[in-house]
């Protein structure tokens, strides 16, 4: 389950934002010209449990015993937004996560960062959404597990409805006067180089009010074991992809894509999304309301089957 609090309208409207822009040279570039098919560092091209994948209802195993409880910070916090060559990201403990893995083991995690990809990296029944937010969590010290990362993905679709989160976490804040510039300091065999980044400080943002409150109390979600979607593609991730699709306006999305999908010099017309990877017979589990709805569907079908057979028997 996901524990969330519904916000009051005036709380959302009262968020204040102040920004300061600086430039650093600590980022790394990643080529998306081939959507990651040419990545050779780490296990990107040599392993079988890679991400992202297409999530299909028919291939998912329903499990009502699973737990997914993401607790966004309820207090306003200051956060730094950073535009690097391949995404816009922030490094901050914006949430705590308690979730069961596909084997039913419950673990606790703390968020360390989040980043965005457009179009979405994961697809659901072949549908690719306009934006994917990936919140990366690390295993809490009091837990012990082989897999030490959990990533919660939230998908966004273009709508006429403004997205309150992106009103404050405004991608346009990192639009500096200069474009990121790269140097010749190659770091690995995937054509990555050090690059400038642009940062902007958001003085006050409340993640629970602006983001957590939009999620269903018990949403449908998918979980599977996979990898990071950027080099070195380490296979050390429990993925949790929410099936509650949130709105974003075209203007808000354009503020992100001006650096990536809409930038002809970024990746030959591609966005910053890695191509779909093979599932390779991995287990995909479904939890939340989707699992409950599937149970109701099959139970109703079973009752109807008995009802029809009863009347056939009476007519004989």
UniProtKB/TrEMBL annotation:
UniProt keyword list: Membrane, Signal, Transmembrane, Transmembrane helix
Sequence ranges assigned to domain Alpha-carbonic anhydrase in this UniProt record: 28-288
Annotated protein name in UniProt: Alpha-carbonic anhydrase domain-containing protein
Signal peptide: 1-16
CDD domains: alpha_CA (cd00326)
Transmembrane regions listed in the UniProt entry: 295-313
Gene Ontology molecular function, alphabetical: carbonate dehydratase activity; hydro-lyase activity; zinc ion binding
Pfam family of the protein (one): Carb_anhydrase
Gene3D superfamilies, per the entry: Alpha carbonic anhydrase
Organism of derivation: Paramecium tetraurelia
């Amino acid at each position: 389950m996901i524990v969330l609090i519904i916000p009051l309208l005036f709380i959302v409207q009262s968020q204040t934002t102040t920004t300061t822009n600086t430039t650093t040279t600590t980022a790394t570039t990643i080529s998306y010209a081939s959507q990651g098919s040419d990545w050779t560092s780490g296990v990107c091209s040599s392993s079988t449990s890679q991400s992202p994948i297409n999530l299909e209802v028919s291939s998912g195993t329903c499990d009502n015993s699973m737990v997914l409880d993401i607790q966004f910070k309820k207090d306003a916090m200051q956060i730094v937004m950073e535009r690097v060559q391949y995404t816009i990201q922030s490094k901050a403990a914006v949430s705590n996560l308690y979730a069961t893995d596909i084997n039913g083991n419950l673990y606790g995690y703390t968020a360390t960062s989040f980043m965005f990809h457009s179009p979405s990296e994961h697809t659901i029944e072949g549908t690719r959404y306009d934006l994917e937010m990936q919140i990366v969590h690390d295993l809490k010290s009091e837990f012990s597990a082989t897999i030490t990362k959990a990533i919660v993905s939230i998908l966004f679709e273009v709508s006429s409805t403004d997205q309150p989160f992106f009103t404050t976490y405004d991608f346009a804040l990192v639009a500096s006067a200069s474009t990121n510039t790269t140097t010749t300091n190659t770091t690995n065999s995937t054509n990555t180089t050090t690059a400038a980044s642009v940062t902007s400080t958001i003085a006050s943002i409340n993640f629970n009010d602006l983001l957590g409150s939009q999620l269903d109390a018990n949403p449908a979600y998918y979980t599977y074991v996979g990898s990071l979607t950027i080099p070195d593609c380490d296979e050390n991730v429990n993925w949790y992809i929410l099936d509650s699709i949130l709105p974003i306006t075209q203007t808000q999305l354009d503020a992100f894509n001006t650096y990536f999908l809409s930038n002809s010099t970024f990746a030959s017309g591609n966005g910053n999304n890695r191509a779909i990877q093979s599932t390779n017979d991995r287990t995909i589990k479904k939890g939340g309301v989707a699992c409950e709805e599937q149970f109701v569907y099959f139970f109703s079908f079973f009752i109807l089957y008995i009802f029809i057979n009863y009347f056939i028997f009476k007519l004989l």
